[in-house]
Structures are given as structure tokens and as C-alpha cells.
Amino acid sequence: GIQVEQSPPDLILQEGANSTLRCNFSDSVNNLQWFHQNPWGQLINLFYIPSGTKQNGRLSATTVATERYSLLYISSSQTTDSGVYFCAADQNFVFGPGTRLSVLP
Amino acid sequence: DGGITQSPKYLFRKEGQNVTLSCEQNLNHDAMYWYRQDPGQGLRLIYYSQIVNDFQKGDIAEGYSVSREKKESFPLTVTSAQKNPTAFYLCASSKASGLAAINEQFFGPGTRLTVL
After folding, report:
1. What was the pLDDT predicted at A2?
2. Is there a contact between B99 and B31 (Cβ–Cβ < 8 Å)?
3. Average pLDDT in the A55-81 region?
4. How far B88 CA sits from the closest chain A CA (Å)?
């Protein structure tokens, strides 16, 4: 089956900094989502983005399907951005291992 | 409001007991999913269902069972055969599983199961 990798595994930022999270997948996909898991465990939908670019406030995402990767950009990070970011790919949503982000005040 | 509910939020079980986790959705979604998450880990697929009265095993189905008698409901039973059931269990749903469909997945709040 498809393999999904994420990098970096851990990221520590100072408030106000920008960051880029990467998701690589081993085969072509027809679904690609980014989620944020908050400290209480709730998974929050960020983007449904099998291809192209989308923006939502300080967050944006780009998926280059032909090269099998997706990027999540966080600009002007805030402490509330802390948590784990997951990408999930393919028809049955194979999850990557996540990137744990800590934003320090 | 439309959404996915899971109950209970916390569940404690003695070894050797079966326990059933509830998942209900009112989004009119066809597909439903169960995932397991261990501390510091990603999500692993247990079972999924694309239509009523049909379901498929995921990557870690051993020791679990499901049913899909209604479109809105997809309960998960953790049986005594599951060797290490303590984990966080997440239910999700999506509109469709067809290759050409927009298939955005939405999650419930989760159930934390602890085996004593």
C-alpha cells in the first residue's frame, strides 16, 4: 500500500516565525488532507488538497501530485498553532506519522 | 448542528471484557472509519465501511469487530482478543469513497480507552 512520510518530526518555533511542513507519498493519490490535532486530541480539518494551492488565513497548502508531495505553510505562528500536524493520503486515508509543532511565546 | 459524535469520552475496562464504542454521524456521509492512535503516534486504520451492511478490514483489525446496520452509526467492539487495547480511538466519516469523488474526511472527538 501507499506510504506517507512527514518531515520534520518535531519543530520548535518562536512566536511570529514562519514554517513549512512536508508530506511525501509513495504513489499517486486522489485524496490529500492536512489536519491539526489539538492538545485534547481533536483532529481539525485544515485543507482538502489533492492538487494545487489553497490558502486560509495564515495557513496555506500546496500539493504537487506529479512529484508526490504536499507542503503546509504556517506564517506568523501563534502559540495556539502548537500541536501535531498530520497529512493523510489516498482513498482510504493513510496517515503520516505527524509533525509535532511547539510555538513558544 | 451536523457532526460526528463519539461516546463515551473516557472508558475503563477490565481485562477479558468486551467493550463497544459508539460513533454516530448526521452528515449523511456514506463512508465511516475507525482509527486507533497510541501515544505519540499517528493514526492506524482498524475498519472502514463504504456503505450500509458492508465493511472492510484495515491495517490492524485483529481483536476488533464492527457493524454497519444504519448509515448514521458505526459501532466498534474491542474484544478480549485485542492484546493491548489501551489507546485513543477516533471515528471519522466522509461523503463518498469513489475515486472521482471529493472525499474530505471529518473526525469525531475520540474515546480514550484504558484497560485496567
Report:
1. 86
2. no
3. 96
4. 8
Asked whether residue B100 carries a pLDDT value surpassing 60, the answer given is no
Question: Is residue B1 pLDDT above 80, yes or no?
Answer: no
Q: How far is CA B4 from the centre of its chain?
A: 11
**What are the residues whose beta carbons fall under 8 Å from the beta carbon of B1, sequence distance 6 or more?**
none
CA–CA distance, A50 with B110 (Å, rounded to integer):
26
Selection from A35, A1, A11, A3 nearest residue A100 by Cα: A11
**pLDDT for the residue B80:** 87
* Nearest C-alpha in B relative to A33: B104
Which residues of A fall within a CB distance of 8 Å from B33? 92-93
Nearest to A98 by CA among A53, A54, A46, A56: A46
